[in-house]
Amino acid sequence: MNGRLSEHPLAELISETLTQGLTGALRLTRDRARAALYFERGALQYATTNLRPFRLSECLRRWKTIPEEKIAPLAVLSDLELGARLVSDGLTTPDQLASLRARQVLESLPPLLLWTDGTWEFDPGISVAEALRVSVDVRPLLAESARRLPYTVIAARLAEADELLSPRHDANASGFDLKPSEAFLLSRLEFPLTLAELLAISGLGEEEAHRAIYVLVVSGLVQRSAARRALDAEHGHGAAARRSPAISSAPDKPTERDEQLEMQELFARAEAEDFYLTLGVSQRATPQEIKRAYYSLAKRFHPDRFRRDLDQATRARIESAFARIAQAYETLKEGATRAAYDLKLSNNNLAST
Q1: Rounded distance, CA 25 to CA 8, Å?
Q2: 234 pLDDT higher than 60
Q3: Among residues of the chain, what percentage have pLDDT more than 70?
Q4: Is the pLDDT of residue 251 over 50?
Q5: pLDDT tens string 302-345
Q6: DSSP-derived pairing of the beta strands 24-30 and 2-4
Q7: pLDDT value of residue 228
Q8: How far is 171 from 184, CA to CA, in rounded Å?
Q9: Which of 8, 53, 91, 166 is a good FRET partner for 285, with 20 to 30 A between their CA atoms?
Q10: What CA–CA distance (Å, rounded) separates 129 from 264?
Q11: Would you say residue 250 has pLDDT above 60?
């Protein structure tokens, strides 16, 4: 699943992921900027970007939570390595590091949410490494981004006057700091109304009303009948993802390779539920598709592609993760071993139901 942010803004993609309870990695590309957001059953678990101001070392400098002289020698490390060193050197605790990572995620998302061009790709079934997971409520950020997006973007998203808008009765608005116009429109939406009807009773100017409605939509408080859904819930959950069409592999030579993002995706693939998700293919994939997926991943994630000066623990983890990809290929490339593995998966699914 992939597309352009001009057609599906990031706030809508995140909102879909939350409301559908999807698991996977949402990767963004805009010129040389790259970012990745990881979700687990509809909850945002982590977000990272190669934009320098939002690297962990830069965030720590800005927050002044750790002395500059302690950060400077470690600034060359990836966020993953830096976090581990901060804890091992006694500069922070695991709980404090989790709070710092959560703050880093919350600060890095607002500029991404304002991207109106670029591309996105959703890779279902991928989870982020346990050590990087944070607990954040991203919905207020979605609302704020809707208030700041260019009006031309919002008007294009709400162009059908006869589209039905319905309140989401399972959504809780108590956690939102809605503006008066937004709260008023939500109070008027006791039952489904067309966009034209809601605009007529709002008493607001067209731009203000459109923007307030869009805030309610991306916040998950209002459901649209004509929403152009980008993500498929069937492809975002464990066993269902295994029945999905083949997941497109990332290009063999990523533009502006970012080692931190590559490591995090490598670790996520290694921790996937099964070998099909590790390789990013459907359970119906042909031997040729499995082979192509493996060789594409090998070009991206072979241990030799990562810096030689990585610390021993990170290097060992990379090698272990790549060994998992190789193991997945060795298991699925041959008919007999693949059939035995499929039977094991089927038995595990039956046992879990």
Answers
A1: 16
A2: no
A3: 88
A4: no
A5: 888 888 778 888 888 899 999 999 999 999 998 899 999 999 88
A6: unpaired
A7: 67
A8: 16
A9: 8
A10: 7
A11: no
Per-residue pLDDT, averaged over 183-206, amounts to: 89
Which residues sit opposite 115 in a β-bridge?
Answer: none
**23 backbone φψ class: left, alpha, beta (φ>0; ψ -120 to 50):** beta
SS3 content of the chain, % helix, strand, coil (to 5): 55, 10, 35
Given phi > 0 = left and psi -120 to 50 = alpha, else beta, which region is 260? alpha
Enter the tokens of residue 330.
């060795």
Q: How far apart are CA 253 and CA 300, in angstroms?
A: 7
**Which helix H or strand E contains 210, and what residues bound it?**
helix 206-218
What is 270-313 written as a DSSP string?
Answer: HTSSSHHHHHT--TT--HHHHHHHHHHHHHHH-GGGS-TTS-HH
Give the H/E segment covering residue 49: strand 43-49
Q: How confident is the model at residue 238 (pLDDT cuts 50, 70, 90)?
A: very low
Return the closest-CA partner of residue 168 out of 20, 11, 5. Answer: 20
Phi-psi region of 41 (alpha: psi -120 to 50; beta: other; left: phi over 0): left
